[in-house]
Amino acid sequence: MLRDTVILTAVGAFLWATAPQALAAEAAVAVTVREKWSNVFAGRRAEFHCTVTAKKPFQGRVGWSLTVRRRTIARGETPVTAGPRKVATVTIQCDLPRVAEGVVMPAVLSVACYGPNAGTPAASLIKPLWMFHEDPFASRSQWLRKLRLHLFDPAGKTREVLRKASIPFTETRNVDSLPALKAGMLIIGEGTSLEKYRALPRIVMQAAAKGIPVLCLAPSKGQFDLPGAEESDLPPPSRIAFRRADVIRELDKRLDDVAWPPDGRAAIGGLVLKSDQNRLIAKAVTTDAGWPWFEARFGKGRGKLIVCGFGLMRKWNAGPTPRFFFVRLLEYVNADNRHSTDRDSTSAVGGEHSEQPGHGPGAKQLTLSESFLSEGEAR
Predict the structure, then answer these.
(1) pLDDT tens digits, residue range 349-369?
(2) Predicted pLDDT of residue 112
(3) What letter does residue 298 receive in the DSSP assignment?
(4) Stretch 301-323: mean pLDDT, rounded?
(5) In 3-state terms, what secondary structure has residue 61?
(6) Average pLDDT rounded to a whole number, residues 39-53
(7) What's the confidence (pLDDT) of residue 20?
(8) Phi-psi region of 149 (alpha: psi -120 to 50; beta: other; left: phi over 0)
(9) 3-state DSSP call for residue 320?
(10) Phi-psi category of residue 341: left, alpha or beta, with phi > 0 → left and psi -120 to 50 → alpha
(11) Hey, what domains does the chain have and what are their CATH numbers?
(12) How confident is the model at residue 132 (pLDDT cuts 50, 70, 90)?
């Protein structure tokens, strides 16, 4: 018994003494991918940039492979030299396979950094990817027509994108004619100034209160009183909510909520809250300092207003996330409020489903309901 204790003690002492060196060796080389997004267009050439850092002089190679349905469809290898004052960058380019309309295909990019003689990688990573078809509205033209979209777009950015995407809509250029809208859905184009069109917030609130779904895309500037406040004469909503980027993954788990290409930003604007005497005001900003999602629901029908600060139109062609999230928005805004509860949903586009990439830390949400204000963690 004493001998066993001595042996175990000696082994434990050896492991304790060698563990820091092993950990240090393991952490001496690191490999990362600059592109934080996982959504890519199928049928196109994808490009990723791997960064290799080393605490000590390092010469080796970076090997990568792209796997779809457990089948390697592309691979490559590049020599690298890195060190304390030298960061190595490896560019990965691969032609992605095509997918059928309505299909979203999972893929995996594996990257490993090897030393000159070692068979075990000094550093490695696995990056899950989702490959999307270019057309998010495949076989949904009839559904789009039934939405009866009405567009007010002084900046013209949204009009151009919708036309190129063959999305049917009726354009209204006179803001004074918007109150006459009695059916369909109203979209306020990206970059519309609430400062120039001061009556617009009241108009869209009244439209939502009448049961018309309204989507306002990233207003450029201006402010408005929050409905339901004591000093506000706007129609009182049944619920108001401010959300962060977690709302993207809530509507479709496969969509990127952390970063969008090309600059890594999803939100191009938002709303910040401020008080003015007895008034609670939402001010539009063109930074990521505000809440990128504002939602006001009116009754149990379809009446709701959503102000979305994510760059859907600006980044429409940079990656699949903006256009597929736009589909989710149209579905969500047009759903009855009694069914539009906070939920953890997968997609309704069709296509393939597999293990979902893990969620990050929950973002904050701010909810005002029946004059009560509460703050909690988003699911």
Answers:
(1) 333 333 333 333 334 566 655
(2) 96
(3) -
(4) 96
(5) strand
(6) 97
(7) 34
(8) beta
(9) helix
(10) beta
(11) 10-132 (2.60.40.10), 141-377 (3.40.50)
(12) very high
> How high is the pLDDT of residue 292?
97
Specify the pairing of strand 213-217 against strand 185-188.
parallel
pLDDT per residue over 259-302, tens digit each? 999 999 999 999 999 988 778 899 999 988 899 999 999 987 88
Beta strands in 9-70 (DSSP E): 29-33, 39-41, 45-54, 58-68
Distance CA 342, CA 378 (A): 9
Q: Does residue 21 surpass a pLDDT of 50? A: no
**DSSP conformation letters of 173-222:** --GGGGGG--SSEEEEPTT--TTTSTTHHHHHHHHHHTT-EEEEE---SE
DSSP 301: S
pLDDT digits (tens, 9 = 90+) for 140-197: 999 999 999 999 999 999 999 999 999 999 999 999 999 999 999 999 999 999 999 9
- Give yes or no for a contact between 241 and 295, defined as CB atoms under 8 angstroms apart: yes
Contacts of 32 (CB under 8 A, 6+ apart): 50, 51, 53, 125
The answer to whether the beta carbons of residues 66 and 109 sit under 8 Å apart is yes
Contacts of 256 (CB under 8 A, 6+ apart): 36, 37, 38, 39, 248, 266, 319, 321
Residues 6+ apart with CB under 8 A from 151: 158, 159, 162, 169, 170, 171, 172, 187, 189
Contact 292, 269 (CB under 8 A): yes
Q: Which residue has the tokens 């199928």?
A: 42
Given a contact cutoff of 8 angstroms between Cβ atoms, the answer to whether 353 and 235 are in contact is no
CA–CA dist 296, 243 (Å, integer): 12
Contact 130, 103 (CB under 8 A): no
Helix (H) or strand (E) holding 99: none
| CA 189/CA 152 separation, integer angstroms | 6
Long-range CB contacts for residues 59-62, cutoff 8 Å, separation at least 24: 59/115, 59/116, 60/29, 60/113, 60/114, 60/115, 60/116, 60/122, 61/113, 61/114, 62/31, 62/88, 62/90, 62/111, 62/112, 62/113, 62/114
Tokens describing residue 320 = 């699949």
Pairing label, strands 123-132, 170-171: unpaired
CA separation, residue 371 to residues 138, 238, 303, 366, 376 (Å): 42, 9, 19, 13, 16
